[in-house]
Every structure is written in structure tokens, then in C-alpha cells.
Write a structure and sequence with these properties.
Strand content: 5-15%
Helix content: 25-40%
Number of strands: 2
Shape: flat
Radius of gyration: 15 Å
Strand order of the largest sheet: 1-2
Structural class: alpha+beta
Largest sheet: 2 strands, parallel
Amino acid sequence: MGWLRAVLQGHRQVAAGLGIAAPTFVACSTRSLLNAREYSEAARTSDIVLDVDNIAAKAPRLGRCVTLVRVKDGFHDLSLSVPTARDTYFFELGRWLNTYVPDAVAL
């Protein structure tokens, strides 16, 4: 129960706004598939854990400089997505790093 309480408290804090001063990168799928009762191929190209529309709606509340990337066919863990979605995710993350963290190691 402590874990769930912490998650819900974190959601409330994000909804209220965090005021992060640093540039922030947020990436999520373009589609959620919540409450599925059986495995389907759509689960491989959807976030089956989180509501991605909620993430996208609340991302601007993180701070004043937020980059939001929606990845078509992205899985919950975008780095484990199907190849086209994974490539998009790493391309966008690399572009963001090159823009806001120019001395970062290229992906």
C-alpha cells in the first residue's frame, strides 16, 4: 500500500505543477491499451500500463521548458518497442540531448 500511496501522491504533485527549471524530456506512446483481458498484437504497440493521453496532457505542468514526444506504436518502455518506434524514440531523445545537453554522448 505504501508504494501505491507514493504513486498517487506523485500524480497529485505533477497535476499541481512541479516548476522544474531544467529542460525536460517526456516521451510516450500515441496509444494506450488499458484493461485488456487477453494478450493481443496491439499490446506490442501500445502502452499497456499508463494512460498516454493523461501523460501528454500533464507534461506541460512539469516546468516551463518541456519537450513532449509521442511515439507511434510505442510500448510502455519505449526502448523495448518494435524497431520503428524504438528508432523514433532514440532519434528524438538524441535530438533533445543535442539541443539541451550539447556535451552529451550521442545515442
